């Protein structure tokens, strides 16, 4: 009863502010007879493509204690998720968009209406509506805020007659070239309409790769997501919820999403202690490489549909427990990004049905070699590749339930350079081994190719693993 009255009051307030703007859609009812309903716009008739074509770019802009993310689809459509803090009025976001030659925002997604997420909304709308090629539509969870920042945002929507959609779970945004699904907020709202707990949650899929954006979702919305979607939350890249606060990026969400990479957007000297040590401990326990805008600067992820390549302004640590040992980089820094690493999705690359083999004792067992997967390819070593061969490496993981006896297996690239795993080497379940290009002493977790030259092509290559019988176990391109 209280929740219903609260939501109704908020909706009424929003409609009053936007009266006569001709662009607001609430609960599927359009305030303009000439505009389509939210369902018609958000659920395209055409199915997503079976195979990925082109490149999806995801830019995490360094905006200090805030967040703003630019996406450029393979079809060159743009999506902006949030616009930074109210204290800089969109300055850093607009500067970055200008440097990227972005002349139109096709989809402007407002994760929720806190002032540190909508700080540049009014400025972005004004700029693109008056000086560039416009804003296609704004997508908003529909929960108002009693701030001047929110009022200025709605005033800009009304002044420039920009279409504004209330966006909820189950909607789909027609972001051309990729599959975009809205997983939150649900109907009815959680927690009596608390803004953080009703963030717009997006999962964006491009080929085998996927990205999960959870806004400032905290424990209740994350629990809802896990309970509702489970393993379908799987994502190659996860944007840490609520700037890395302790109440977000929970263990259950991490286990369901299984990210290869996590990105945290917050200030180096965050007054809130973001990212929180509890969050970093959870990431470290799962060995998830973590990038932080405060030390890596602008972070650009590129997906070709089979792998995600990460480029950053600075080569800062990615070990979650070492994040703070990196040096701060100021928002607005203009130095270019440099490629750092390439990550592949968590799914097993082997599609053939496992065959049965027979042990010496005659007991049938399943061949589990198909459970070998690639966690990470670091093709571009820091500095000169030739001088830092051990920073060029591939990380393999045993995703199965049984040990993999890998002695005699070979790893090769497209140029047919070959490495043979030492006899007797075994990779236990859920353990990783890193194969470095250079020289060193082999251990249970580190192997060394012993090459005197770089192996992996920075511009893309294929990793092939064959077993002792010369059967292909794994083949993945990046």
Automatic annotation (TrEMBL):
Domain LTD: 360-478
Pfam families tied to this protein: Lactamase_B, LTD
Superkingdom as given in the UniProt entry: Archaea
Entry-linked SMART domains: Lactamase_B
Protein name, entry field: Competence protein
Stored PROSITE patterns: LTD, PROKAR_LIPOPROTEIN
Native source organism of the sequence: Haloarcula rubripromontorii
SUPFAM superfamilies: Lamin A/C globular tail domain, Metallo-hydrolase/oxidoreductase
Region of interest: Disordered: 345-370
Database matches in InterPro entries: ComA-like_MBL, Competence_DNA_uptake, Lamin_tail_dom, Lamin_tail_dom_sf, Metallo-B-lactamas, RibonucZ/Hydroxyglut_hydro
Biased composition (Polar residues): 348-370
